[in-house]
Each structure stands twice: as C-alpha cells, then as structure tokens.
Amino acid sequence: MKPSSRVRLVIVGAGMAGSKLANDLQQTLNTHYSITLIGEESKVGYNRIMLSSLLANDISDAEMPLVNTDKMRVGGVHIISGDPVIDMDLGTKELRLASGQSVTYDKLVFATGSRAKMLSIEGASAPNVMGFRTWQDVDVMTALKGYQSVCVIGGGLLGLEAAVGLVKRGHKVTVFHRSNWLLNRQLDTESAQLLQNRLEGMGVQFRLGESPSSFLQSETGLVTHVVCHGGEHMKVDLVVMAAGISPEVRLAKKAGIEVNQAIVVDEKMKTSHPDVFALGECCELEQQTFGLVAPIWAQIKALITVLSGEDGRFVIEPTPTKLKVSGVNLFSVGKIQPTQGDSCIFFKDVAANHYRKLVVNDGLLVGAILYGNVADGSWYFQLIQNKTNVSDMLELLVFGEAYCRPQVA
Amino acid sequence: MTATIAKTTCPYCGVGCGVNFTIPDSLTESVPSVSGDLDHPANFGRLCVKGSSLAQTLKSDDRLLAPMVNGEIVSWESAVDTVSAKIEQVIKEHGPDSFAFYLSGQILTEDYYVANKLAKGFLGTANVDTNSRLCMASAVVGYKRAFGSDTVPCNYEDLELCDLLIMVGSNAAWTHPILYQRIVEAKKQRPNMKVVVIDPRETATCDIADLHLSIKLGSDAAIFSFLLQHSAQMDILDNDFIAQHTNGFNDALMQAMESTPNLVSTAKFSGVSEQALMTLAHWWEKAERTVTFYSQGVNQSSSGVDKCNAIINCHLATGRIGKEGTGPFSITGQPNAMGGREVGGLANQLAAHMDFATPGAQKLVQRFWQAPNMATENGLKAVDLFQAMEEGKVKVVWIMSTNPMVSLPDTAQVRRALEKCELVIVSDCKANTDTTAMADVLFPATGWSEKDGTVTNSERRISRQRGLLPAPGEAKHDWWAICEVAKRLGFQSAFSYHNVHEIFSEHAALSAFENNGKRDFDIGHFCKITKEEYDNLTPVQWPVLKGRPEGTKRMFEDGRFFTPDKRAKFVPIVPVLPVHVATPEWPFTLNTGRVRDQWHTMTRTGDAASLTKHTDQPYVEIHPKDARQLGIEDKTLVRLTSPYGEALLKAKISRAVSPGNAFAPIHWTQQFSNAAVVSNLIPQIVDPLSGQPESKHAQVKLEAVKNVSYGVVVSATPLDTLDFIYWCYVPSEHGYHYEVVWSVGENVASIQSSFKISDQVAGEWLEYTNPKTQQIRLAYINNQKLSVAVYLHAKPDSISCDWLESKLAKNVVLSELDRMAILVGTPANVEDKGSIVCSCFQIGSKQIEKAVAGGACSVETLGATLKCGTNCGSCLPELKHFIPTIIELSA
C-alpha cells in the first residue's frame, strides 16, 4: 500500500494514552495508517506517572520517557508538540491548531486526558496556585528555592505524592483533605492511619476533614495565606491543587460529540460520531471514567484491534491502586467498604506497619487493601479479575499466595 | 569428647529392654543419650519410641528436690522424724493396720523388699499393696490357683517359636512394642505362624492378625471355655499329661460343656461370628505350639482371675505348657511388677513367693528376718485400702512412686480417702502430681538413671537398673528413706544396709531359705553376692538356684508344679460379663487403655516433647453411628458422665470401637488437662479373688459440648490462669503449648484482656480475624520476641505448632516475615508435616501421603524414602493404613 493511500489517523493529545497508542499503532498497523500525534505540551511521550518520583528526586529526567519518540518519528509518526488543537470540524474532518496549522484526518482519536480540578474558592486563580499534572508543573516546583510553605489541597494519591515530593525537597507541606482519612477511596480508616503516621514521620502535616475557606492574596496577586475553617490564617508560598481531575472535553463538546462527564464511548472506544474514538482519562464508558494506567492500556489494546478491523472490546475491570512514594507500600483494589453480604478478613500488625483487609462475597474476593507488605497485591488482583472461587482458601487467603498456592495446585 | 557407656534397663513396660546409657564426661557440656542394648535378651538392641526418648526425660522442670512437711521445705532428718513419730503414735493408739504402704511397679526390687520387710515383719501389718494390683493381680491369682505358685511358664522366645499366638486383651503394638516387633519379625520369617487377636477394639495390634475376634467387652472366658470343650470333642487332649500332672480336669470340662455347649451359644455370648470362632477353634486344634499372650484386657475385670484360669485350663488340657513355643503368658505393664511379686509386695502375699496361707511360711519368714512383729494375715488390697482410709481405719499411708489420684478407680473416693487420712507421705521424683498435691509429707526420690537395683521383666528375667547419674538436690533412694524411718522406729539392726547389693543378697537368701525346691522363686545363687558381682550382674531368668547360675529359661518342663502334690489344678470356669451393663440412663460402655507414646500417668513420658506428637490430647473414641446420633463431630469436646464423676475429652470418631462402646486412654492427669482423668468415671468394682478393679468397664453417658470455640495457645511462659472450659497442656520443646476450648462470644478485646499483659511491657498485638471461618488469631510480640500466640476457631482444627514453638526458643528474634507466619502457624516455605506418625524420625501424615502419591506402595518403600518406621517400628501398623488398598480390591 502506498503511503498516500493509507488512512490518516490523528491522535489529539500526546500524553501517555495518545503517545502509547501512536507508538503501538506504528508498530502494528503502520502499513494501514499514517499517524499524526498532536500534543499541547512541549514534551511528548513521557511517563506522567513518574512525575511524582521525579519531583521526589527518586529518578532523573532520563528515566521519564514512556515511548521513544525519535524512533516513532523515524518510523513515520508525525509528531506535533506544543501546539494544541483549538477547533475541529466533524464534517470536513479538519482540525485547527493554535499555531494556525490545519490537519485533516480520516479517523480521529481523542486522548486529551484531564486537568487538575480547581476549587472554586476565592483566589484559586492566583499564579502561585497550581495543579500537579505536567512535567511543566514539576519544573515549577523543583525550581522553588529555599524553605517554602506549601499547601496541598487533597489527600488523594496525587496530593500525597506531591506532598512527599515537596517535603523531600525541603519544603514545609500541609495537606488539606476533605475526608476524615487519607485516600478515602482506596483505604479504610485503619490503613489510612498507618499511612498518615508514616507520612507525618516524613514531615508532612495534615488537616483532615477540612478544606480551606479562601486564599488571601497580596497586592501582586499571589496567594499569601490560606484561610482555614476556624478563621485561622496559614502562611503559604505555594498552593498545589490535587483535589481531583476534570476530563478535558472542551474540544469534543464544541464539535458536537456526545459528552457526559467525559466523552461517551462504547466498548469499541467509538464516540457518538463514526470515525471518532476516544480513550484515556477523557473518555467515559458506562458512566465510568478512568484515571489509572491499566484500564487505559487495555483501551489502547482494544482500539488497535478495532482499527485493525477485528472485533476488539474493552471490558471494565477493577484496577489496583498503588501509591508512588518510596518507602510507602500500599495497594488497594476493588470494593473496599463492605456492604451487606460481604465479609472482611483482617490481618493487623500495626507495630510493623503491616495491614491487610480482604472483602469476600459468596466465595469470591471482591476487594483488598494491603499496607506495608504489598507483595501479594497482584495475586489478589488476579483472583478478583479471574473471579477465582476462594472458598477453599479462606483460612489462609489473607496470608497471601505463598500460603495458598499449595492448596490451589 | 569421651563418654562412658553403661548398661541399664528401661523403666517403662514389662518387656524390660536393655538400654545402653551413654554418659558424656561433662554433663554441663553435653547430655546423655540412650540406645538399645544389643546384648540384652529382651530386645537385642531395639528400643521403642518411649525408650528411645528416655534421654529427653532426664531433665525435668518439675523435680522434687527437698523433703517437705505441710508445704515447708525441711531437712531429711526432720521429715523422717515427723513420719516415724506419727507412725509410732498411730500404731500405738490404733494398731499396726492403721499404717499402710502403697507402692509401685516402678520402684526396684530392693526398695520393695525393705518396705515389705518393715511392714510385714516389724510393724506387724500386711497393708502393703501396690499399683501392680491394677495391672496384673488377676494373673497372679490365676497362676497360683493353677500352678500353686505365681510362675510365668514361658519366655519371649516362645512367642517366636509358636505356630499359633493368641493375643487376648492386649494392644502390644502400642503397649509392648518391642515384643510386638519380635512377633512381627517371627511371622515374617515363618508366614505360616498364625496370630489371633481377641479384643473388643480393632487396635494397631490387629495389623498382624490373621484373625480378629471383636468380642463383647469382658466375655473372654467364654472363648477359652469353648476351646476347652472343643479340645475334648476333637480329641486333641493330652490325656497322659492330664492324668499324670493335673487335678480337676473333669470338673472343669463338665463346666465348660455346660457354660459353652456349642459354637452358636458361645459366639452369641461373646458377640463374635460363628465363622470367626470356628476358625480359631480349627487353628487351635492343629497348633500344638500355642502361646496365649494376655494382658490388662483379661486382668482388669471383675472376673479377671477366672479368665486367666480359662486360658490356663486350655493349655493344661492340651499339654501346651513347659515346652518350646507354648504356654499361657501374662505380660505385665510395669518395669518391676514382677519384682514386686517376688518380694511379696502385695497385701495378699507374705514374702519371696510365700503367702500367709502357705503352711509354715510365717514362721519361716519370721525366723529368717528375726522379726519381732509378724503380720499374720492378708492386708488390704488397693481399693479396699483406700476405702478403709476413708473409713478412718488407715491413718498413715506412705505412697511411693505412684499416682493413685489418677490410676485408681473413682478418683472422688480416692480424694476423700486421702483427705481423711491423718498423714499422707508421698515419695516421688516429681514435685507436682495429682497425688503429691494431696501429701502432708513429700520425700524427694531418685528417678530412673539415679536409682540402683534390680527389676524383673515379664519373662522372669532379672536385670540391673543402674544408678548412673548423681541424684539431684536432696533426692534419696526409696530403700534408704524406708530404712531411716525403720531405724527411728527401733529396728536399727534389721535395716542398717550400707549398700543396695546387701538388700539383694538378703532377698536372695530368703528365697532359698529352707526352700529345697518347694517354692518356685529361688535365687539362692545370689545369697552371697558381692558388690562387684552385683554391679556386673547380667540379665538372668529366675529361678537361679545354687550351682545353676545360668538361670531357667522355661518352667514346668518336668510337668511338676508347686502345689502340695506337684500337680497343676484345673479350675471350673463360668464365663460372666462385667458387673455393670448399659442402661437407658448410662447407655455407653467405656473401655480404657493406652496410647502409643505415653506411659501411665505421664510423670515420665510427659517430659519428652517428641512423645506428645503422636497423640497430643486425651480423647474418647466413639463409633460413627453413635457420634451421628449424639451430634458429636470429630475432635469436638464431649462430656462423659458416670455415676461417679465426669470427664471432658475430645471425640475421636472411629470404627475401631463398636457401637455402644467408647474408649478413652488413661494417661492424662490434672497436671496436663482440667478434666481428663478417666478414673473419675470408673466404679470401684473389683475381682473378688484378686482385688483388681474392672477398670476397662464403666457405664457412661456422652454428650456433645456445644457453643464453644476451639483453639491453641502457645506461650513463652506458663499461663497464670487457665480459665477455659477445657485445656490440655501439650509438652513441647520450647515454651508452653495448650489446646483449649472457649465458650463462644470471645472477641479480640476479651481475649487480649484475658492474657493480662502488663501495660509496662512495650509489646504489641498482631491480629487476624476471619468471620467467614470464625477465626481469631492473636500474637503478642515484645521486643521482636514472641510472648504468646492464640488461635481460636469455630471448629476444632489441628494446627501443627512445631514451628510456632520453635519461635519461643531463647534468642529467637522474629523476622519481618515471621510476624505474619506466626498467625499462620507455619512459614510459607516450610513443609506442613501433618500430624506426626513416626515419632522416631518425626515424619508426619502429610509427608507420608505425599510419598504414597509419589508412588511409594509399601511400608518398606516409605521407610526407604522417609525413614519412617525403620527405628522402633511402632508406627508400622499406622503406616500400612497409608498404603492404598485398591490393588487388593481389584484383584
């Protein structure tokens, strides 16, 4: 097939999902598709997950790439960076970029990802209030000099990773978290307490069950103080917003594609419009959005199958959570708060920071929290995914694979 | 390092195996070890698992190390003064029969001799009885009635030489393992040799049986009554022998024909199939070389003596006695039950195989002892003795080396008796037994490896038990303590022995004194034995007459017995069933016995951790049908009630017992479990002739204990409170292991608080909870060391605690991975052995199952791969059960 006769596939968004899709497509369906990858960031194809580690100084820039963009280019992928798509026409299949350049597609994939949710409180738009999403964000934080007071809003995965990174860089960090315990979607109170103890030991301070009521700004517009609920003023140099993410759907919405919380897709990753697909954090299937890497990789796989003309399907499965803070091991997957009919099996060795909770229902493992020793996480994950009947293993299940394997065999 | 090897004798069962005892030069740097003595004719180098574990029992945390009076440590001087003053007082005020000795088949012949001499010759009471009363008193009376003497005719070789071996009421595979192994070996060499087991239970001994007669409890006599009349019918009588050497044959035969007229009625009476009984009868017809091997199942009965005579009648009628491979062979349960008989250490004996009724015997013994105060009639037998004590007639009792609070029937009565008794003296090497708890005066005794003297085994073989280790603390030999009391009572010259061989030579001299072949027991050869000769004594079977130092292998070879006319006597026997029968209120019959790896009341075997692995807890064996009806599941707690008391035991559901019957082992005391003393349930019914209790027959009801949870506690220190429904202490290598039962409703907090760990201790709890399996497991760890681990389950689970216990060893610091493993009970990479089957090599059921699954198809291949069964062999019957029988079924 001649290059000109190949289908023009354009991927909007060069984050992890878009870059990996481009890379994998190039390796498998290069002869069918001519691929264009368009990103708003200047850096393309890096591993966003590793930003926390980069911030914490646990890795260097060299360890950041997710895909080899040079190789992709040589292989024929057209990469446009630092130039976001600002408009599109579904009828003419034309895209307009911020630079004025226009790109035509036969098939289009939205991989626009998401942005940090900005709380709608006074002062939230100040220049020293930032998200924690991009390499650029990390560059800003690493450039901070001296001992700065940082307020992190949100005690979820991202917020805690940011907090630890900043503490390690010598700053004073206070985390505001609306819930009464950290990682309230992934942990229960006991494991969250273990985590909190550990992070406090590293120097992070916490204000739980609390959101700031407002930010006080200086004349220059910078936030100088966080106003706490009790009226107390806390001096800050920087505010990091990590109170959740919003899927980036503006372009799709404007173009007339069906959008709910995110771009609505079917299990073939197709949007409401033929020839337009979406995947990653910007898409929504069965009212669910996706923030973790495993389902997104599965979406890429499914989409490539679809694009190859075969019957690909993406199936939603529980995805485990890990916190990327070195020295802190936690693992959470599936249903972690029991409801009627569920039973919880516990192992607690608080002194050794080792905690396990398994949620079991009708012979199946449905959820797990591991703290401290997470070696068995992937095994529990498999049991959940494979819907393995664990009735015969209940006595030893919480002690992990090494104890149960002989019984399985 | 150099070491000394000395020969001594095993202190357990009546087989009397020779033991090589290796003593390291420095006892602080190394510990003694034991092995079988290749030269000893009882065992030729073999030792059973109990014997093999003797070295483990040498160091006990619970030695009695100083004399005590009313709970206070005192000097020997003072303790002996207290005792002799009290004996003097009660004898003065109430007569000599207000004093009694209660002795044991575990003390040595020399200890026995001086006790008997003091009581019967100097204090003037025949109240000298012994725990041997509980084990072979019926056999003694049976022999005496038939032979005129208490003479075991056979020897162990006869077991190997016979063509038919009938084992009656004996689970020798577990109780006399070395004899059993000799039989197994003989049967292998001569496959035509037939073995018949007569036992209500299907025991491990049945493993080599060509025929098992699962008789109704206590109905043994009918089988032999039938064999007697059948012998006449089939014309296999030895008419010459009957005519020349016996009396009373016709009466006995007439009675047999009346009692057991035919096969059908006999089979019905004994509850066996006619076919099985006929098979036995056919084999009996053919096998001129027959040994009948019998033990507690025959003796512990209200008609025990008659059963013995029913057996002996058959041997006399067919002349199967006094020849190679023949004889009625009573096997004793204690190391020196026979020695006790020889000195006259039973209340119905006088001395040196003479009875009060033997014409001239009293005068003879008085002359020999120069005794000032001879007893003139039989004293009180064990059960009567304790009843007289309760009635206030016996006011001072001196209990030596035995545990009547556990071994005598009706523990509540024994307790009442000891409470009533004005002075209870207990000589023991253990500080804490159910009986020492009742004592006013405690004398610290030497134990095996320290005691020096002789014992006699079941084949009349006298062997030396040698004093090889120094006595700890203030412990003294029993004979010494008796002599000290005797001297204070004014009998200096008769009890001033300097050395144990002086006692033995006096005993030998008495046996020969004016004997001239009138009495079977004569060891006159040893009358003037020197210390050196005594110390070098090699095992020898009595009689050892002057000029015949080689001893006597077999008795009655000349057909002459020890009755006045030298003829043996037939005794007409009416077979009867046990006294108590099942009633609607007490629907179950409880049989009692032993487990493989424990001995008696565990005062010795309880010190060897490895011996608890085979059976770690007391149990009651119940047929599956009964269990189903009573709602009792395997290993759950069962309450046994009899009119006399109660016990709590774990159920073992098994077809080895028949429906309506139950079986419980006798070993566990209150030191080991809160309510497992089986003698609580047993009535004080005795054989009228021998006084031996019917301990194998109690009427009970069984009831499942509901609403409980089961668990295990292992602790670095002994638990302060044992506030459980049931607990059993399981001796272990390290730390303290308890099997426990809680009432339901315990939770993490209530369990944690029950262990009362001080707030001062900076340790931490580990916790595992699983509502699906109703499990709670907790561990308290202090400074990386395990303090206590608690496992609680809804159902009884056997958790192998070996690894857990190893974590209680000193200097063990828990690793990160260990912490979780503590709550599992095993580290992930360690094989779970299952329950231990082979104690010698500590091979467990799961290992064996694995080897079988891997192709091991015989006990030999199992032995080759795992070593199991290749040492003492007592697990061989169990090993066989692991070998699939599919091959046989399809053949």
Description:
The complex is a heterodimer of chains A (409) and B (891). Chain A is α/β, with parallel strands linked by helices. Chain A folds into three domains: 3-115 and 245-307, FAD/NAD(P)-binding domain; 129-241, 3-Layer(bba) Sandwich (FAD/NAD(P)-binding domain), CATH 3.50.50; 329-408, 2-Layer Sandwich (Enolase-like, domain 1). In chain A, 24% of the residues lie in helices and 27% in strands. Chain A has helices at 16-29, 51-55, 69-74, 135-143, 157-168, 189-202, 250-255, 293-307, 377-385, 401-408, and strands at residues 7-12, 33-38, 78-80, 85-89, 94-97, 102-104, 107-110, 114-116, 129-130, 149-153, 172-177, 205-208, 214-217, 223-227, 233-235, 238-241, 245-247, 263-264, 276-278, 283-285, 288-289, 321-322, 330-334, 343-349, 354-361, 364-371. A five-stranded parallel beta sheet of chain A has the order 3-2-1-7-19. In chain A, strand 25 and strand 26 form a beta hairpin. The longest helix of chain A is centred in the C-terminal third of the chain and has 15 residues, at 293-307. Chain A is globular. Helix content of chain B is 30%, strand content 19%. Chain B has 30 helices and 34 strands. With 891 residues, chain B is an alpha/beta fold. Chain B is globular. Chain B folds into six domains: 3-57, Phosphorylase Kinase, domain 1; 68-134 and 336-501, Rossmann fold; 137-330, Dimethylsulfoxide Reductase, domain 2 (3-Layer(aba) Sandwich); 588-704, Barwin-like endoglucanases; 708-824, no CATH class; 836-890, BFD-like [2Fe-2S]-binding domain (Arc Repressor Mutant, subunit A), CATH 1.10.10.1100. In chain B, the strands form eight sheets. A seven-stranded mixed beta sheet of chain B has the order 5-4-16-15-14-6-7, covered by helices on one side. Chain B has a six-stranded mixed β-barrel with strand order 21-25-22-24-23-26. A six-stranded antiparallel beta sheet of chain B has the order 28-29-27-32-31-30, with helices on both faces. In chain B, helix 4 (137-147) packs across helix 14 and helix 8 packs across helix 10. Chain A binds chain B through residues 343-352, 354, 360, 373, 394-396, 398-400, 402-403, and chain B through 764, 766-773, 775, 781, 816, 819-821, 823-824, 826, 828-829. Strand 24 of chain A pairs antiparallel with strand 30 of chain B, so a sheet runs across the interface.
